[in-house]
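Researcher: Next entry in the queue.
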Amino acid sequence: MAKDRKNIILQSLASMLEEKNLSKVTTALLAKKSGITEAALYRHFPSKRSIYAELFSFCDNAIFQKCNELKKSDISTNEKIKNIFVFFVIFIEKNKGFARLLSREALSSGEQNVSEDVNQFYERLELVIRQILKEDSDNLISQAGLSAQVIVTVLEGSIGRYIRSKFKDSPSTYVDNLWQLTSICIFKN
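Model: Structure for this entry, 189 residues:
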């Protein structure tokens, strides 16, 4: 039962972060959305910061599980990176609340530790992409590190653009074109 309530709270927070007119998420609003009292909310999480941290942890795990799966696959380096790129864009599109977390838009100064986790997330994503690119460094136009940086920058920009459009301009509609343009900057052929 406790795990169910925890999941309800996390789903409620993710849902609140998806709202077009994002207002400050308070524990009182979150408790109301979750259908529990504020006291019950604090029985499951010691602080609002810990709720954000656990929600971010779910996002982080989902993305890196897929990255690690692709890293171990027998497909070409270009296909591995393309699949990570496309997965990331579609994951964010389907989980708008995570878009707000990964852009740091949903975080206040009270969630500074989550903001630091987001920074580390992007550093780790860049590292995984760089490691994959190094497997085929002869096919890269530039260094693997710089190429990984370009890819992550494009992904971050896609999140920002999606949020600015108030979630109307779905990034999946242009993900193939965006990948094609990005891969021209990364791969020789």
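Model: The CA atoms of residues 85 and 145 lie 16 Å apart.
Researcher: Noted, moving on.
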